[in-house]
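wait is this the right file?? whatever heres the structure
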């Protein structure tokens, strides 16, 4: 719950997060009771079991955050191409200062998770983590690190792919302005074109926002499905 999208944000009270985590614990207790191990006899074994479950929780929670970070990457690239990279505001989804487009995409992604019912898949994934990593079983650190590095690469690649229209259009515009600047060296065309650049970027953003969020939802759904036991 500390890393759960929509619940672990800074605007959600810590008391609410704790109550939500406690409620989820009561709900999943009975379904998981047959596979839960016998309570340990010593405090050291209990601490070791709790620490192990914390590592697994942070591992899967970090996966969700990496998938969410694809929107942050896409928004940063879009803002750079639009000329709005210095327009920074608080991003509640990432708890940091981000560009305007990053904040919009991150907030839209969080809202779409709950509108499309993917939050139910997240809760299902919590239960299935006990099947992927049975209680008191050995943790494979090598596989966990490999999966984390792989998802980090995929999340960055998806973020760049989401911003591909802006990269292509921005490259073409800069090439055209470069040729025009050579023909008219007396005029600072790059400064003159900044307002048009921003307006054009906003227009392109309005045209592509639906496709961007649709592709991201498919990526989020596919990544989450890999943790759910069919």
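ok assuming it is, sequence goes like this
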């Amino acid at each position: 719950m500390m890393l759960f999208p929509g619940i672990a944000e800074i605007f959600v009270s810590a008391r609410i997060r704790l109550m939500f985590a406690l409620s989820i614990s009561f709900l999943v207790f009975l379904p998981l009771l047959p596979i839960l191990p016998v309570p340990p006899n010593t405090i050291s074994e209990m601490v070791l079991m709790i620490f192990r479950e914390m590592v697994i929780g942070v591992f899967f929670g970090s996966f969700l955050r990496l998938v969410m970070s694809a929107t942050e990457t896409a928004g940063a690239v879009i803002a750079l191409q639009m000329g709005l990279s210095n327009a920074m505001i608080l991003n509640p989804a990432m708890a940091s200062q981000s560009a305007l487009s990053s904040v919009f995409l991150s907030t839209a992604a969080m809202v779409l998770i709950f509108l499309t019912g993917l939050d139910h898949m997240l809760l299902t994934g919590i239960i299935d983590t006990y099947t992927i990593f049975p209680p008191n079983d050995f943790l494979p650190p090598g596989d966990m690190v490999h999966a984390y590095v792989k998802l980090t690469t995929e999340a960055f690649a998806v973020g760049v792919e989401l911003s591909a229209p802006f990269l292509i259009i921005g490259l073409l515009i800069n090439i055209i302005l470069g040729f025009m600047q050579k023909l008219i060296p007396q005029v600072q065309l790059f400064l003159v074109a900044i307002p048009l650049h921003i307006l054009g970027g906003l227009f392109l953003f309005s045209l592509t926002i639906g496709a961007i969020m649709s592709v991201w939802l498919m990526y989020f759904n596919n990544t989450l499905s890999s943790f759910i036991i069919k």
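The mean pLDDT is 81. so i think its the right one actually
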